[in-house]
Amino acid sequence: MHAVDGDELLVVGKITGCFGIKGWVKVHPYTEVPESFGAFGSWQLKRRGEYESVVFDAVKPQGKGLVAHIRGVDDRTLAEQYRGLEIVVPARALPALPTGEYYWRDLQGLQVWCRDGDDRVLLGSVDYLIETGANDVLVVKACEGSIDERERLIPYLPDDTVLRVDLDEGVIEVDWFVDEE
Per-residue pLDDT averaged across 83-95, rounded? Predict the structure, then answer.
């Protein structure tokens, strides 16, 4: 995503509508733990390619999502202007993760390697991840130097199919067979 003032911005949710008559909006958070959305503290809204700073002065769970109040927006008519806008935060606002845990964005672009007998084989690079409910899945697409042109779906199971992640080296080592789909 684009940067504002040199900071990489990440989409963390979307305003999907209004809630009540006092300027509250419904928020669909993209965070794994919806309650963590309120901790970012430095929100921007993306409107037609431009960024607008806002302050959510209150955030509460509501159904499967959240409701939030934007400071200075105190009626439904004004809140309606925010429907459909993406909510972004600077990447630096994300909390540090424990050792061995990674944000999806950190895994995207990493090369995926496996063993084929005594050879180390490049399967491709992580294009994106899919959340399936049971576990996340790496979508690995062919890249320069990969063994073939196939797309592979590899379960993201640390200490099982995923043997090692090295962000500095830019690689993920997996226990996977070259011919396995």
Answer: 88
CATH topology for the 3-92 domain: Elongation Factor Tu (Ef-tu); domain 3 (2.40.30)
| CATH code of the domain occupying 104-174 | 2.30.30.240
* Domain 104-174 in the same topology as domain 3-92: no
The whole-number pLDDT of residue 4 equals: 47
* Residue ranges of domains in the chain: 3-92, 104-174
Taking only Cα atoms into account, the Rg of the chain, rounded to an integer number of angstroms, comes to: 20
Q: What is the pLDDT of residues 135-174, one digit of tens each?
A: 899 999 999 999 999 999 999 999 999 999 999 999 999 9
pLDDT at 31 over 80: no
